Each structure stands twice: as C-alpha cells, then as structure tokens.
Amino acid sequence: xxxxxxxxxxxxxxxxxxxxxxxxxxxxxxxxxxxxxxxxxxxxxxxxxxxxxxxxxxxxxxxxxxxxxxxxxxxxxxxxxxxxxxxxxxxxxxxxxxxxxxxxxxxxxxxxxxxxxxxxxxxxxxxxxxxxxxxxxxxxxxxxxxxxxxxxxxxxxxxxxxxxxxxxxxxxxxxxxxxxxxxxxxxxxxxxxxxxxxxxxxxxxxxxxxxxxxxxxxxxxxxxxxxxxxxxxxxxxxxxxxxxxxxxxxxxxxxxxxxxxxxxxxxxxxxxxxxxxxxxxxxxxxxxxxxxxxxxxxxxxxxxxxxxxxxxxxxxxxxxxxxxxxxxxxxxxxxxxxxxxxxxxxxxxxxxxxxxxxxxxxxxxxxxxxxxxxxxxxxxxxxxxxxxxxxxxxxxxxxxxxxxxxxxxxx
Amino acid sequence: xxxxxxxxxxxxxxxxxxxxxxxxxxxxxxxxxxxxxxxxxxxxxxxxxxxxxxxxxxxxxxxxxxxxxxxxxxxxxxxxxxxxxxxxxxxxxxxxxxxxxxxxxxxxxxxxxxxxxxxxxxxxxxxxxxxxxxxxxxxxxxxxxxxxxxxxxxxxxxxxxxxxxxxxxxxxxxxxxxxxxxxxxxxxxxxxxxxxxxxxxxxxxxxxxxxxxxxxxxxxxxxxxxxxxxxxxxxxxxxxxxxxxxxxxxxxxxxxxxxxxxxxxxxxxxxxxxxxxxxxxxxxxxxxxxxxxxxxxxxxxxxxxxxxxxxxxxxxxxxxxxxxxxxxxxxxxxxxxxxxxxxxxxxxxxxxxxxxxxxxxxxxxxxxxxxxxxxxxxxxxxxxxxxxxxxxxxxxxxxxxxxxxxxxxxx
Lengths: 411, 411
Prior knowledge:
Two copies of one chain form a homodimer. With 411 residues, chain A is an alpha/beta fold. Chain A folds into three domains: 8-178, 3-Layer(aba) Sandwich (Molybdenum Cofactor Biosythetic Enzyme, Chain A), CATH 3.40.980; 183-251, Alpha-Beta Plaits (2-Layer Sandwich), CATH 3.30.70.2860; 257-410, Maf protein (Alpha-Beta Complex), CATH 3.90.950. The first copy, chain A, contains 14 helices and 17 strands. Chain A has helices at 27-37, 52-64, 84-91, 100-112, 118-124, 160-178, 194-205, 231-245, 257-268, 282-288, 306-313, 317-323, 328-342, 389-410; strands spanning 8-14, 41-48, 69-73, 97-98, 126-127, 132-134, 143-148, 151-156, 183-190, 211-218, 221-228, 249-251, 272-276, 297-303, 346-352, 367-374, 377-384. Chain A has a six-stranded mixed beta sheet with strand order 2-1-3-8-7-6, with helices on both faces. The model of chain A is unreliable at 1-5 (pLDDT under 50). The interface between A and B is large, with 75 and 75 residues.
C-alpha cells in the first residue's frame, strides 16, 4: 500500500429481504458519503442473506482484502435470524460470550420501550470477546466495534435511524481520529445540465488541481462532490467553484431544494400556492414533505384537465384553444389565477408534456413551461427536458422550485 | 450440492457512482425477483467501482463460490471507464478480440441514434472469446453471455431500461430453460398490516406446505411472495391465498395500486378528482404518474390551509372550528365539496396528522381520515398509521386509492 493511497472501507449489508427483491438497500448511499467524509474510500459493498456462513465469509473476505474499516449493517437484534455477531466471531476465529455491562445497558434501553424479555436481553448481551460496546440511543440493540490488526469491524443495527445515529455519534468521529481525514464538499446545483456544470467546475478549478470532482446528476439537479487531501486545498476549490457557479448553488449542506425554498419563504414571512398540470401534484407534494411547511404552503390546484384550468384558475377558454394548454400564455395565466384565487404571496405553475405520448414537432415530449407570479408581476420560463415520464415530471417540479428560489434570492 | 438445493446466482453491479453516495442501486431489486422467478436464489449482490481489478476479482470470486449464473451490470459501453468486458476476460484468463458480427450490429444500432463514431463502434465490438452476443433493443451496447463449466456470466448494460429489456428478452428465458424452474407468485395487498397478512396466509396455506411465503411490507401495502418447487404446488397455494385474502388483493402481476385504480375507472368511463390536506398532492401525483391518466383524472385541490378548505372546497368554517380539520366531518365535506365543485364522478379526500409534530392524545400523529364521494353518497374511513412523516403520507395516499378501489369493485 503506497502512502498516498487512501484507506479503504467495505460495507456488508445483512438482509435476506434485500435479496428477495422489491426493497432497495438504503445503507450504502448514506455510509459511502459519510466514510468519504471521514477519509475512507469504499471499495466494495456487499449484500448478503441472514445466513451465518454467508456473513462470516464476507467479513473474512473484507479483512483479507486490506480493508481498514468494515461496516456490517443489520442482524444484531434479539431474533433467531440475527446472526451477525456469531458470524463476525466465526470470521475472527472466536466465540461470543456474555457481557455483564452490555446486559445492564440493554436492560436499561429495553425498559424505555417497556419490553425487557430476559431472553431477548440475554441474546443481545452476547458480544465478540474484546469488542467495544456502542450504545444505541434510538433503539435497543447495541453496536460493537472489534479490532484485529490494523482493521476495525463495526457491527451496527439495521433500522436506518439507529444505524445513522450510531454512525454519526461514534463511528464517524472514531474513524476521523485514526484515518487521515478526507475533505469532501457537496455542492448542489439546479436547472443546469451535467455537462454544463462539469465545464464550469473544471474551468473554475483549472489544471493540475489536487482536487477531484464527481458529478451526480438527478432529474433537475446536479450534485458536485469535491474531494481533496487537505482542508486548505478543499476550501480553496470550494471558493473557486462557489464564485463560478454563484447563485446556481442551492445547498452546500445536503439540504433539498424544497427545504431551501421553505427557509427562504419563512425568512420573508411569505406564503406560496401552486398550480400544476403535468406534474400532477408533485410540486405541492415535495414542498409539503418538509415538516412545518404549513407555515408557508397554503395549498394548490392540480388542474390536469382544461376544464379545471378554466374553472379553478380562471384561465380563459379561448386562450387554451388558441395557444394550447402547454404554452407560455397558459403557464402565466395559471400562476396569476392561482395567486389571485388562492391568495398567496407567490404562485408557481407548471404545464408541459410529460410523455411518453402527446408530443408534436412544435411541442415535443419534455417541453415544460413554468409560471411564477409574485408581488412584482409574472415571469415565465421554458425548458425542454430529457428522460422518461417520471424524470420529466421530477425535473419539472424541481425547476419550478428553483425558479421561485431564484426570485426569492433577489427580491 | 444436494439435489434439493436451488441453483445460486450472484449479482455484480459496476458503478463508481454507487460508491460515492447519494445514488442507490436499482438493479438488485429487479434482478433478484426475476432470478427467483427463473428458479435461482441470489446469494450475494456486490457493488464495485469501475476498476478493472475490482470487477475481475468479484467475477472470479463468484465463479469460485459455486454460482451458476453471474450477472454483471454496467460498464459495457464505449467510454474508457467501461471496463467490464476486460475484467471478465481477466477473470476467465483470456483477452478480448474484435468480433465482426458485433461490429455490424453495433453500427446498425448506433445509426438509429445518429451516432456512429468509428472508435465507439470498435470499442463496443471487442468481445470475450466464445461469448454469445445479446442484442440491445433499447440502446446501443450489446450484452454478452459467456459460459465456463456449469456457470454462465451475463454482461448487461447499465441503463435500467436497457438492462431490463435485455434480461426479460434473453437472460430470463435462457435461465428458465436450463435451471429447474422456480415457481414464484407475487400477491399484492393494501390496507392490511403485515402481521395480519401473514396470519391470513399461514392460515390459508396450513401446515407442512411445500411453499414458502415472504412478506414485503411498504407504507400501506404488503406484498406476499410465494415460492414453490412445482407449478402445481404454487397454483394450489395461490388459489388458497386468493380465496382467503379475496378482494384485499389488488394485483398479481406486479401492477401498482394507481394503475389498478386507473384501469377500473377507465373500464367504467368514470372520472376522479382529489382533495388533499396532509398528503399535500401525493394522491394526485401517484394517479398522474400513470401515462394516459388524463383520461380519468380531472385534477384536484391541495387544501393545506383551513382557508383553502373553505374557499376551494366549501368546507364550512364552523365545522372546521368545531371538529378540527382532522375529523370525519371535514373529510366527508372535502370529498363532497371536491365532487361538486370540480365535477368528477368520484372524489377522494385525505386529512390527517403526518407528524412529526401536531399530535394530541385524542388525535395522535398518524391519524388519517379519508372521504370518498361517489354516485351513491359519501363514505368515511379512519386509520391510525405508524412510521415517520414520509411513511404516514405514503400510506395515507395508498389507503385513499385502496378505499376507492374497494368501492369501484362493488359498484
């Protein structure tokens, strides 16, 4: 291992249900970012069933593959299919033993939930010899940290809220103390294409920088993940990128667009209403996914049919006939109608062709018009978006939020 | 390997972006179900970066672990970080060679997209010696199937639409011909708790059945995956479960609740409007996620504030003051108001407390009321749902759809 090579982590997710389909893992995306933040590259993530042999084999393989940190997720609870501790003991050539401190702690945690079945307490109090106990502040089952040579195996509970709390509280800080820190910044942008963001960032960073940039596109947004070897290098890179992208950046702390818009509205004491056609309620749904959004979201209208565009928003029938429902005129009238009839400080509207059918040469699938009515009048924006129906709808909704964000920034 | 043990598959997903966080894999859930359907148990799923050595090591490991089918997803395209073919060649101890048939096919496919860069065509025409070509009917890059001993390695393109098409078209049928078939049925239910579904299914199947049932809960729904060793055993089990669960089953072909509701409305020529409070547009959004939903969804109202409940839906102010917005009275008035003012055959309403705050002893977080107005009058349903804000909202939306489905089934 060369000195410049970053320390390496492996993630092992234990869960038969993830190999039965229809349920996607949620641990790997969270852990990879946090491990990068702590200075580790994730070199492999494996999903294995709740079978002692399978788990043991994966842990052994990770330890043989020069991983310095191995995170094993799930299977530390009290039920018979919780085999992770046994499996890790197998991989380390040892056997579990009862730990009195663990038993006390588990009993204390279990009593919070009013369930202190002695069998369950005892099962969870069996630990790998030499392991350090990680208190579970959300649920009951404690985590474990076991060192062997230069590697540490962390056993964390499977419920996402428990795993996250335990990682952020114990594992992340501990790794940061021992690993050479990794300096990672995530810069989130909206309304730009991936290639545009990449050009702007490369341009800002210049040549020969000791910073790597990864681009993570999703409908309507592009995240830029900057990684550097020192705090100073990262800070300088972030400053350059910030200067170049300017107000295209909506978040540097992982916040979602709907949270940022909510915070801007709250700060101004402004309220918002929505008028949606092709997004069918997605804009309102994103906005109201944030707790406390009732402070600034009054509500909205899903005017999917032309009849409802007339009846609920007052869009003139002859305008719909002359320009079509997907037009700048109608987007504008929808926003104005919503602001007037529903009574918010701001109204955003979306009308477009989400596909897969309904496109024409003049108005292709992916064409979307946004209207934004506010104290200073109405603006309209026009985009042609790629991707399937779901992607067009999500990008349309996010662009609507970003349109409003842009206006709130300058007003 | 004993005769009764099912053949074993491994999935290797190639993608550095999946180990940088923020993006979750989408291949494993799809492939595990399809492989089960084809008679294979997935015993390990691994995510590795776009690095030739890492991919090669994982393929070698899978072949050493008695897998009969290895699916490698992604990295077969024309760019320099597409290393899967090289890596598989490494694992098999061979090197890529140019294939003239592949070149012709790639040129033909590339011309559909108007992009026949000779370099890209040539790169994609390099194949593992002895591999069979799998035509890409969606994109350009072909897949490959390479056999070694009793194992076959399938190299499939990474874009989900291409991977799915290629799997369903070639890989699934091919595996089914060689593996002893697995008989799997998925039965989807809504509005029941997991424990209730499990009791009903166990009860229906009785003891000593050669059928296994797995329960896959998601907010508002529980999927039952039945697996058997013969077609007859499966058919008998499905018949029993069908009889016991009856109209609680909304789909046996993987269809979503919003598709089933859409089909029922279409068959009756009926239209629908929505009136949402705590779901904030999610019901309308789910319904309109289905292409062609404009045939039966007219639109809806997101009446998040009490003011809009009055103004847009005509809910009396004194009813809101007397019973509160989260009450059977208001749910009923919202549905009636929406049906009258928006003009659909059916109107569904949702009002509730999504949390995390806003609950009281009488009206806890998770309390949700649904109203359903139709040709025969108004019904109201009441539920107390568990989980966080996102789970309560999604379960509320699905229960609203299932409420309507129940009425459409009998009307």
